[in-house]
Amino acid sequence: MYALLSVSDKEGIVDFAKGLIKLDYKILSTGGTLQLLQQNNIEAMDVSSYTQSEEMFEGRVKTLHPKIHGGILYQRDKKKDCEVAQEKGIFPIDIVCVNLYPFKDTIEKTNNFDEIIENIDIGGPSMVRAAAKNFKSVLIVTDKNDYSFILEQLKNKQNTLSLRQEMMIKAFNHTAQYDCIIANYMNQKFHEGFGEKVFICAQKSFQTRYGENPHQKGAFYEFENHFAKHFKVLKGEPSFNNMTDINAAIKLATSFGDNPAVSIIKHGNPCGFAIKENLLSSYICALKCDNVSAYGGVVAVNGIIDEALALEMSKTFIEVLVGANITPEALKVFDSKKRMKIFTYGDKILHKHRDAYDFKHIEGGIVYQNNDCIQTSEVENAKQMGKIKASDKQIKDLTIAYIIAGITKSNCVAYVKDSALVAIGMGMTSRVDASRAAIAKAKDMGLDLKGCVLASEAFFPFKDSIEMAAEVGVSAIIEPGGSIRDDEVIACADVNNIAIYFTGIRHFYH
Questions:
Q1: Which one, of 242, 286, 284, lies nearest residue 266 by Cα?
Q2: How far from 244 is each of 265, 271, 273, CA to CA, in Å?
């Protein structure tokens, strides 16, 4: 029995080879894998010796040979195939263990295109696909985490069709992902990321109990390994809806560097946000914005949750809490909260990650775009349009309001005072309705908007929202500008002694 071992990631391969030899397999190998096995006194035959065909073209051609691919592919249950194999001196290769050149690692560490090209594996995917195709007879192993399991199955004579089928599926997933990464890279390099095809690859992280509703199945898949590295489940089980809300909460809380920000999210939208001198003060102020909607919401804390903060949070029902970390004393505070879910995502501050591209599903396909990135420099470089100049304090509040508006469902208006969200209207069919909803909610909460600032993610088409802002005491406004009635809007701001700034950049979020 022959087993062919040729891996780029060599972790665990020595022990795997030793286990196979104990099970009477003869080892075929190549290159660095062969060298490592021989250094560990493992008897292995060089593929070149086995095929009587030396490596060529600086290693580009090693395993592309009939004795290799024939040994993998010939059908053991077909008499004609067996006769041809015997005639040509082709022995059956029953196990193929291959993982591929680190193309993704290469493009992350270098822009040297020649080096990148050389890290496109040819022989590896060919062997993987061949073994996977012939899974009725051949066991394909592509994941180092399966080595111990596979050895155990072989020892117990459980090399079943069902096992080989599962390994076949993993193998095709492995090569499919590999090809997708290469294709997406080439489209990025030569077609600005928008080629004739786009490939979306993600690894299943966990199954959710259901999707958005109980009659839907659901799971979370991640593009890279940010969640695998940073996301820890301390209490409860994250649901489909939890994950979308956690994403929104973390996105907002990490938009201001290492500041002690706290965001509160309900159904994907902010209902509270603040940056104060510490996390406890930030949470208390964030909750004031809309403590009704915050009930059963998702809270993200850009820092370490301590006992004092936990005690304050325990006064209301929070369904999901995510922080960079949490102290043991703080975690104990929530022991009695049976319905509460607690996760960490980071270390001292929340882990921040932004994907390069964004997409949305529509029936029959997806719309695909560069991810929107809102920069604080947009506020710093905003143009003063009216007679009134904003103070440094107002600029700070405008920055917070502008970012909140930019990552909240359109139409959106955000009102901020003393670095805390005090009113927000979002997802409305008109901007003036968003303004009405925000102001009405602030009134219900007993919040004084006098002196606050206002941000809109798109232009105000009429002066009506400015007039409403003046009535509640808004002191400064920031928006992209671009309306045919910008002059009226600016004039209205001037009449009401409101500083008004245009960024020239719209941030629709549909």
A1: 242
A2: 10, 15, 18
Looking at the domain that runs over 374-502, which CATH code has it been given? 3.40.140.20
Output the average pLDDT for the chain. 94
Q: Tell me: pLDDT of 56 over 80.
A: no
Q: 267, 351, 393, 396: which one is catalytic? A: 267
Q: Of 106, 167, 192, 150, whose CA–CA distance to 13 is shortest?
A: 150
Cα–Cα nearest to 305, from 274, 338, 287, 331: 331
Burial of 93 (0-12, 13-18, 19+ CB in 10 A): buried
The answer to whether residues 198 and 184 touch, using CB atoms and an 8 Å cutoff, is yes
Q: What is the DSSP string of 168-227?
A: HHHHHHHHHHHHHHHHHHHHHHHHTT--S------EEEEEESSSSSTTS-EEEEESSSHH
CATH for the stretch 2-191: 3.40.50.1380
Active-site option among 18, 26, 133, 230: 133
**Segments making up each domain of the chain, as ranges:** 2-191, 232-345, 374-502
**267 included as an active-site residue:** yes
Query: Using 50, 70 and 90 to split pLDDT, how confident is the model at 57?
Result: low
User: How far, in Å, CA of 381 to CA of 377, rounded?
Assistant: 6
What is the structure's pLDDT at 59? Answer: 64
- Whether the model clears a pTM of 0.85, i.e. scores above it, the answer is yes
Torsion of CA 156, 160, 165, 171, to 10 degrees: 40
CA 387 to chain centre: 44
Distance, CA of 333 to CA of 318 (rounded, Å):
13
According to DSSP, the residues that pair with 77 across neighbouring strands are none
Cα-only R_g, the chain: 30
Does the annotation count 133 as an active-site position?
yes
Average pLDDT over every residue of 413-424: 98
d(CA 434, CA 455): 12
Q: Averaged over 409-419, what is the pLDDT?
A: 97
Two tokens at 472? Answer: 């509640």
Q: Do domains 232-345 and 374-502 have the same CATH topology?
A: yes
State the fold for domain 232-345.
Cytidine Deaminase; domain 2 (3.40.140)
